[in-house]
Write a structure and sequence with these properties.
Number of strands: 13
Order of helices and strands: EHEHEHEHEEHEHEHEEEHEE
Helix content: 25-40%
Distance between the termini: 46 Å
Strand order of the largest sheet: 3-2-1-4-5-12-9-6-7-8-13
Shape: elongated
Strand content: 15-25%
Radius of gyration: 19 Å
Structural class: alpha/beta
Length: 276
């Protein structure tokens, strides 16, 4: 059986958005959806049985919701003991994707999602946003690093699965760097490429307002084990689901993935300012 899509739930509206998105991802890949809830008990004075019963209901209701919202889905639930971050990192070892709700960051340990879960996951992490199915193109943010190529590869596959347009974007701080952006995106068909001008974090946050999915690698200074400042800003403020396409199992790509139907003589890069 293919590796499952794993979604973490906590009984909140944010968790429902994550379940809906995870169900869609599981069906498109023809794999199982595994719904998990990390149970911790901090009050030794009593109430354990009722708290655990409520946690079990979170899982059962999430599985039922996933099956109702996505026909043909194979979904199963599991209640696991331990802190959410540790539980989800462990689950990522055997998952194709890991999905969490973006509005429930505090319930997942505050900043620990950014500091621990995303860079330490063994598979890509999708942060769900909003309460309606996302629409719009799949946007891949690239910077020329080998880590961003992992994101580009994922974005190409995701756009194909969704049957939606692919946009490959690169952000430059100032117009004087447009020539470098042109070289970086030279292999990308003209209709798929975009250059954003402005502070990278703010530019990508703005791009999420019109995207169905934003894909980027969460690398920071020192490599993939620390989340970068740009990825951190998108995690906090992004307006659409965001995929952090780092996975400790993933092999670094040997060459740049080529989007389909590349133009032999691509025209000039389309420029978009952050304020537009």
């Amino acid at each position: 059986m293919p590796d499952p899509v794993v979604v973490g739930v906590d009984g909140t509206a944010s968790g429902h958005a994550a379940v809906r998105l995870a169900a869609r991802e599981a069906v498109s890949r023809g794999c199982l959806l595994k719904v998990v809830h990390a149970f911790t008990w901090a009050d030794p004075g009593g109430g354990y049985a009722s708290a655990r019963g409520a946690a079990s209901r979170f899982v059962e209701e999430a599985v039922a919701f996933a099956k109702r919202s996505t026909p043909g889905l194979d979904a199963r639930g599991q209640l696991l003991d331990g802190p959410p971050g540790r539980v989800l990192i462990t689950q990522s070892r055997f998952a194709r994707l890991l999905v969490v709700g973006g509005d429930g960051l505090d319930r997942l340990g505050g900043g620990s999602v950014a500091r621990d879960l995303v860079p330490r996951s063994w598979c890509p992490v999708i942060l769900a946003r909003g309460h309606r199915p996302p629409t719009g193109p799949v946007v891949a943010a690239v910077d020329g690093s080998e880590f961003s190529l992992l994101g580009l590869r994922f974005a190409i596959e995701e756009a194909d699965l969704r049957g939606c347009p692919l946009r490959v974007v690169h952000v430059v701080d100032e117009p004087g760097l447009l020539a470098r952006a042109d070289r970086l995106l030279a292999a990308v068909p003209a209709e798929q490429r975009r250059v954003l001008v402005g502070p990278p974090g703010a530019a990508l946050v703005r791009a999420t307002r019109r995207a169905g999915l934003l894909v980027l690698a969460p690398r920071g200074a020192g490599g993939a084990r620390r989340i970068g400042s740009v990825a951190g800003e998108v995690l906090r403020r992004g307006g659409c689901p965001v995929v952090f396409a780092h996975g400790l199992r993933a092999k670094r790509p040997a060459a740049t993935p080529r989007p389909p139907a590349a133009s032999p003589e691509p025209p000039a890069v389309q420029q978009t300012s952050v304020g537009e």
